[in-house]
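Predict the holo structure. Ligand: zinc ion.
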Amino acid sequence: MDSRIIRLTNFNSIQVYFFDFMKIPKFQISLFAWTLILCLFVCDVNALPRKIYKVLIIDGQNNHRNMAEGSVMMKKFLEDTGMFTAEIATSPKKGENMENFKPEFSNYDVVLSNYNGDSWSEDTKVAFEKYVKNGGGLVVVHAADNAFPKWLAYNKMIGIGGWEGRNEKSGPYLYFDKEKGKMVKDTIKGLGGSHGHQHEFVVTIREANHPIMKGLPTEWLHQKDELYDRLRGPAENVTVLATAYSSVEQKGSGRIEPMLMTLQYGKGRIFHTTLGHENYSQKCVGFITTLQRGTEWVATGKVTQPIPKDFPTKTKGRARP
Ligand SMILES: [Zn+2]
C-alpha cells in the first residue's frame, strides 16, 4: 500500500499530510475523498450529528411529595439517552394565581406532564390543545392522569384518569377481559380511580409489535408502586400496550388494568404511563426504559433505542441507583 495513503489516515500527522498531499495524483485524492464519505455514512453513522428533541417537563403542583425529585430524575433519564434535552417548567403553588403560567409549548417536541393541580388559565389550555392537535408530543406520568377532571380535551388526550370526582359521567372503565382476550370498556356506574397497597407486580405486554414495546420481555417484574385501577374516561383512540393484574389480596380491583397506553389527539401522539408513584418506583429499569422509548415515540413515531441489558425479567426486578 502507498505509504502516503497510510499517512493520510494519521490525524496526528497533519503537517506530513499536507506536505504529502501536494504530491498525490488527482485520482488518488478523489479515491481518498470517496473513502472518507463512504466511511462517514457506512462505517460510523453514530458519529454524525443527531437531532436532539426538546422536552418540557411540567410540575409545580402534585399530590406526591417527590414531585420535584421525580422531575429531576425524569430529566436525567431522558437526557441519558443522548436524544433529548429537557427543561422543567414549575407552575405557581396550589391556590396561587395561574394567569401568568404560560409555557411556550410550541417551542418543544414533547411535553411531559408531572402535574396534578389547579386548573390552568383558558389561554394556556387553548395553547396546549393547539400544540397537541398540531402534532406536539405528550407524555403523561402517574398522577398527571388525576388532573383536570372537567377539561374534556385533556381527558381525551389521557384516555382514562382517576379521582377528582371522576365517575360514569367521565366515560367507561377500560380493562383486559381474560375470557374475551381483549380490552373492554364498561359503562357501569362507579367512581373512577383507586389503588390498593403498594407492591411489586408483573407488567404484561399486550402489543408486542408496537415500537415502544418491541424487544421487551412479555412479562417483567416492576418495582414497588401503586397499581392504579378503575380509571375511567373517554377512552377514545387508545392502544393499551401493557397491563397488570390488580389483585384483591392487595386491595385492588381484581381486574387486569391498563398500565401503559398510547393515544392520538389530532396529529399529536401521546404516551401515558400510570406507573411511577415514588422515587423507588421510577428507578425501576422497566419504568425508565418505557419512559425513554415512549418519549422517543411521541417525538418521532419510531423507537431506535436498544433494550438495556439490565431490563427486568418476570422474576427478577431491576432498579437503578
Ligand atoms: Zn401515587
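Residues 64, 142-143, 226, 277 surround zinc ion (CB under 6 Å). The chain has two domains: 3-47, 53-300.
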